[in-house]
Amino acid sequence: MSKLSLKIAVPYVILISSLVGLVASIVLTYDQVNIWLNPGYLAPCTLNPVLSCGSVIHSGLGHVFGVPAPFLGLVMFPALAAFGLIAATGATLKRRHYLALQAAVTGSALFAVWLFWLSLYQIKALCPYCLVTDVAVYTVAWYVTLYNIQQGYILANARCRRFNAFVLKYNLELLLTFFVVVTAFTLHHFWYYYGQHIKL
Asked: Which pLDDT score, from 0 to 100, does residue 89 have?
């Protein structure tokens, strides 16, 4: 991807991904509130023993200082969307703005990885809408990182030049490969359930 095309695309990737993540966070917040009000509430995205929003929400593990993760999404995704919208309008954003954004999305991606790990190994169930927010966060983090690499804001050392050129050239392929690998790993992890329902 050329320098110009990445500069044009990244703000829209941030904006669209953030809006998708925000919608998922709103749905999760709605389910969370309903479970507080009625512990017997069955979340619509509780599809089976593995894909079960209710199991994840009831676990209470996805909290930060007592604040449920969906509530954090209601703050984070609008902020990211605002950044993407500002950048898309052609406003001049400086290096410090993109480095602050890098710190925010990297922290969010690591938090998403931690929640995914909890879902796999402690809760032993996945929340479909949580997975949507994960995809949104990983996509934003990936393309913000690529933009900062291309602009020389991070990994500017000459030793990183070959690596930078590779990830910039195959950015979409690498992202899709990541999602395919994670999907395959997740399916394998829960094969004790899906193996009974999928006939190859």
From this structure: 93
pLDDT tens digits, one per residue of 172-182: 999 999 999 99
> How many whole angstroms separate alpha carbon 119 and alpha carbon 60?
11
Residue 61: what residue type? Answer: L
185 Cβ neighbours under 8 A, 6+ residues apart: none
> Is pLDDT above 60 for 2?
no
Given a cut of 80, whether residue 41 has pLDDT beyond it is: yes
**Burial bucket for residue 4 (CB in 10 Å: 0-12, 13-18, 19+):** exposed
> In the structure encoding, which two tokens stand for residue 170, read together?
């195959």
- Cα(18)–Cα(162) distance, integer angstroms: 31
Torsions phi, psi of 44, nearest 5?
A: -60, -25
CA distance 90 to 75: 24
Q: What are the residue boundaries of the structural domains of the chain, listed by start?
A: 3-194
Please state whether 66 falls in left (phi above 0), alpha (psi between -120 and 50) or beta: left
Query: Would you state the CATH architecture of domain 3-194?
Result: Up-down Bundle (1.20)
Contact by Cβ (8 Å): 130, 115: yes
The residues, any chain, with a CB within 8 Å of residue 171's CB and separated by 6 or more, are 1, 142, 143, 146
Distance CA 133, CA 19 (A): 10
Count, residues in the chain: 200
Q: How far is Cα of residue 160 from the mean position of the Cα atoms in its chain?
A: 26
pTM of the complete model:
0.92
